[in-house]
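Hallway conversation turned thread

IA: we were arguing at lunch whether anyone had actually written out Putative serine protease PepD end to end. Turns out nobody had. So, for the record, here is the sequence (433 residues) and right after it the structure tokens. Reply here if something looks off.
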Amino acid sequence: MTDGWDGRRPGGYPAPAGGPAPGCPAPGPQGTAGGPTSPWWSDALADPWRDPYAPAAVVIPAAPPDPASEPEPVSDPDAPRPPGLRQVVLVSLIAALLAGSLGSALTYAFLRGPAVPRLGAESGQAPALAQRKPESLAGVAEKVLPSVVTIRMASLGGISEGSGFVVSTDGHIVTNDHVVSGGTGKATVIFNDGSSAPATVVGQDPESDLAVIKATRTGLRPVEFGDSDGLAVGDPVLAIGSPLSLANTVTAGIVSALDRTMQAGEPGGPTRYYAAIQTDAAVNHGNSGGPLVDGAGRVVGVNSTIKSLVADGQEAGNIGLAFAIPINQAKRVTQDIIGTGKARRTVIGAQVGGTGVTTGGVRLNAVEPSGPAAAAGLKAGDVVLRLDRHPLTEPADLVALVRKYAPGSVVTVEYRRGSTRQNASVTLAADAK
């Protein structure tokens, strides 16, 4: 019985110095001490653990060096240092972002095609009427437009169309007499929101070219009245109405002149007189009866007529010469119409004829014995030169200027009698009609 090794050393291998190891027999023949070499030892020649005669060897690893005993390293402060990890990551990230952006831009450019230049600068804010200041033109238009209407009047010749504006919550509307004259007395009113209502004529004053109709609707928004006597040449104004059937049209201009005396009327019809507000706001057919408003959105006139260069029978158009009835006069007349159904006309109590030969002015052909002119001392043959500082050059000037004032107003009249100039204070009165 053996455990795989022979206690004797294989042949050919000398025993260790000093004889056999303690407890081991000397070598012999095979099967005995000193026998032939055993095959069991053929793979154990280099294995110290299977060679009982190999000396034991213990390998002890060297101890790590003591940092305290090492010399402190010396570095050159001017020598270039390798980039740190943070720098490497940051540079890589920036390069990746730039490459991605460039790639996206190129892709978008190729897909979109040739670039189209964008004109103008974008404000970044959506336009809205709520952002307009009340004193701006847009703010004024927004304030007045809900009170402006289009008027359609049926007549034997067809349908006439004009403009008007609301003056009371219960449906009273002011317009021109020539818008409703010749009609059946029934009209249709179209409001700013597109709705409509029937209306009837309340009263008319052909000589002042004013009329009042009433729509069958309540809860309307009336306009705010201004003071036409407070206007000055150059003041901004807006004309609002339905020129050429274009409803809710707003045009802008200035006051071009004041107290421009007008004598108008159709052949065979009444002659209309008024001292008008002249404006260069664009006014065309269909604007008649619409409001002329100041920079605060207050009505200062009623658009009534225009001047044109066209020949007779041709359609007139705007050339920047439009005329409006002053609202102080229009308000007084319409209040009379609403209250009594007719209007009072202001008179001076004299009949005018020709003009002065050398000094200008208008000549009085006759003076009513109990009229305002006679009470102030004027006589037939006197030449009136000025009425409240307004020079007179045509007979219509005196009539138009007198009708601008309310009955009971006191005006200064400068006149010439013979070679003498005199002044008189005249208290104007209402006619007896």
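OS: looked through it. The domain at 346-430 is CATH 2.30.42.10 (Pdz3 Domain).
IA: good, adding that to the notes. The two ends are 166 Å apart (CA to CA).
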